[in-house]
Amino acid sequence: MGELQTTVTMTVNGERVTRTIESRVLLVHFLREELGLTGTHVGCDTSQCGACTVLLDGEAVKSCTVLAVQAMGKAVTTIEGLETDRLHPIQEGFWAKHGLQCGFCTPGAMMATTYLLSQNPNPTEEQIRVGLDGIVCRCTGYETIVRAVQHAAQLMNSSTQTERSTEVG
Amino acid sequence: MLTAPFEYRRAERVEDVIEWLSDETRETKILAGGHSLLPLMKLRLATPAILVDVSALRELQGVQEDGEVLRVGAFTRYVELARHSLINQKASLLSQAANVVGDLQVRNRGTIGGSLCHADPAADLPAAVLALEAQLVILGPNGTRRESAEAFFMAPFVTTLGRQEILAAIEIPLSTQNARSTYLKRPHPASGYPVIGVACLIDAIHNQTIGTARLAITGIASTAFRASAAEAQLVGGRLDAETIAKAASTAAINAPLDDDEHTEYKQQLVQVYVSRALQQVAAQED
Ligand SMILES: Cc1cc2nc3c(=O)[nH]c(=O)nc-3n(C[C@H](O)[C@H](O)[C@H](O)COP(=O)(O)OP(=O)(O)OC[C@H]3O[C@@H](n4cnc5c(N)ncnc54)[C@H](O)[C@@H]3O)c2cc1C
Fold first, then answer.
1. Domain limits at A72?
2. What is the distance between the alpha carbons of residues B18 and B168, in angstroms, rounded to a whole number?
3. Å from CA of B34 to ligand 1 middle
4. Looking at A81, A108, A124, which one is the last position of a domain?
5. Minimal Cα–Cα distance from A24 to chain B, Å?
6. Under CATH, what is the fold of the domain B7-53?
7. What is the CATH number of the domain that holds A96?
8. Do A89 and A73 fall into the same domain?
């Protein structure tokens, strides 16, 4: 059985972690079950819905379609890594513009938004819709998500961002 | 969903991969971006005993001009194909096709090599490499061989790739770098894969005489194919409404479609999408 296991080291939300796991463990299971980071959700488990989206070396990926061993030596950011002592502007955008109802897709939607805004800080509505094509939301009809992303982009582009951020708790 | 258990190997040398692939007792598969293979493994439609991760192989990386060709490493991801300035300039058709594969997360993982070797009849990139008349550089136990994209795709999910062979790179002739091109896709509303995708490359605009015309179509037949009869009809003519209409119906009539209850619908799709693709190219600015 030994050869079916692999030792992986990666950085998750800034912290280096090493675990010996079965090679077939998916990144999403590694995050949720090995590290207890249950903010990353498993929606469809067939690479369609995007609820499991995390950043891998800064790029949005569906963590149900990445093996944990493929993240070897890389940096992973999950929804837990977004927030500090204040809401991240993207979280604030989703909160202010009601970018969620049930909240199940929200961690993935926010991570995809983080990537989108890192590539394009001023996306048009069309670019937001294309950018979030890999996220399935069954509640909002996407309208409020688009507004949330627009609001987040505004917050991130304005210098007074820290003053406006909402304290957590 | 978990895949069946497997042994994971991260390849450092191509020679090792070729050697590992010779194992006849335990099925050994190459893992690139994993965006076709892992879903199949989760459904247990694929149960390899050994997975060989080729992401670190030097031979599969990089994009550079090399004499008369642009060499694109097999491990180049869609996101890179879409953005790379050399590909944008010298083989913009490939960038255009890569940019509409799946969604943003898929494009951050999937690779050109994985797409071509998987040979899904509904994949986008086969149309682009056919129209660009790309050569595939394949490494195996007997060294390096080159094969045209046209010969490579044999049947749905079947290529000429031997059990011990690895696709290392895709070579795109620079001779068409100044041609106009477009990739026009009608995505399936649920899967996002093309119902039809038309790759079109033409060396003329407006009133110029067409010297080179390439039309490759994916998604609609058992493999991607060149619409040769329509291409021949375009050469020597001009991209005007009449020529476009003729070429589009020739493409539809000659498309190698399965003979079933959908044939008429598919012919109509070919006709409409070839016509739109040609119109798009005709409307491009200098
Ligand atoms: C949600 C979703 C949506 C998608 N939508 C589209 C779409 O719209 N259009 C589209 O075209 N595709 C689509 N795909 C498929 C995607 O493009 C895959 O990335 C691609 O088909 C396979 O590339 P990969 O790098 O992920 O390869 P893998 O999945 O790693 O490998 C695929 C196959 O190729 C073999 N292989 C890989 N690299 C090599 C090599 N260098 N030499 C020899 N063999 C090799 C593997 O052994 C395996 O059999 C989608 C996938 C998902 C999950």
1. 5-81
2. 12
3. 6
4. A81
5. 6
6. 3.30.43
7. 1.10.150.120
8. no
Q: Give the closest-approach CA distance of A64 to chain B in angstroms.
A: 9
To the nearest whole Å, the CA of A2 is away from the closest chain B CA by: 9
The reply to whether A89 and A164 lie within a common domain is yes
State the distance from the centre of ligand 1 to the C-alpha of A154, rounded, in angstroms: 36
Distance between CA atoms of residues B36 and B157, nearest Å: 11
Each residue's pLDDT tens digit, B95-152: 999 999 999 999 999 999 999 999 999 999 999 999 999 999 999 999 999 999 999 9
Rounded to an integer, what distance in angstroms lies between the CA atom of residue A66 and that of residue B228? 40
Q: A117 and A128 in one domain?
A: yes
Q: Are residues A90 and A54 in the same domain?
A: no
Verify whether the Cβ–Cβ distance A70 to B6 is below 8 Å: no
Report the topology of domain B179-284: Enolase-like; domain 1 (3.30.390)
Helices and strands, counts by H and E, chain B:
12, 14
Q: pLDDT tens across B203-250, in order?
A: 986 678 999 999 999 999 999 999 999 999 999 999 999 999 999 999
Structure tokens at A35: 């590290």
pLDDT score recorded for residue B177: 95
Please give all residues whose beta carbon lies within 6 A of any atom in ligand 1, as ranges. Answer: A 47-48, 65; B 29-37, 39, 54, 60, 74, 101-102, 106, 109-111, 113-115, 117-118, 120, 123-125, 161, 166-167, 192-193
CATH topology of domain B58-173: 3.30.465
Do A88 and A163 reside in the same domain of the chain?
A: yes
Helix (H) or strand (E) holding B107: helix B104-107
Contact A67 B38 (CB under 8 A): yes
Assess whether A90 and A75 both reside in one domain. Answer: no
Structure-derived torsion over alpha carbons of residues A74, B81, A131, A151, reported in degrees to the nearest 10: 70
Dihedral in degrees, nearest 10, Cα atoms B74, B78, B81, B83: -150
Domain boundary among A14, A48, A81: A81
Indicate the number of domains in chain A. Answer: 2
Q: What SS3 class is residue B80?
A: helix
CB contact under 8 A, A112 and B108: no
Name the residue among A25, A41, A72 with its Cα closest to residue A136. Answer: A41
Q: Which of B6, B39, B55 sits opposite A65 (nearest CB)?
A: B39
The pLDDT tens digits of the residues spanning B47-99 come to 999 999 999 999 999 999 999 999 999 999 999 999 999 999 999 999 999 99
Tell me, yes or no, whether A76 and A92 share the same domain. no
| Global ipTM | 0.94
Checking if the pLDDT of B286 tops 70, the result is no
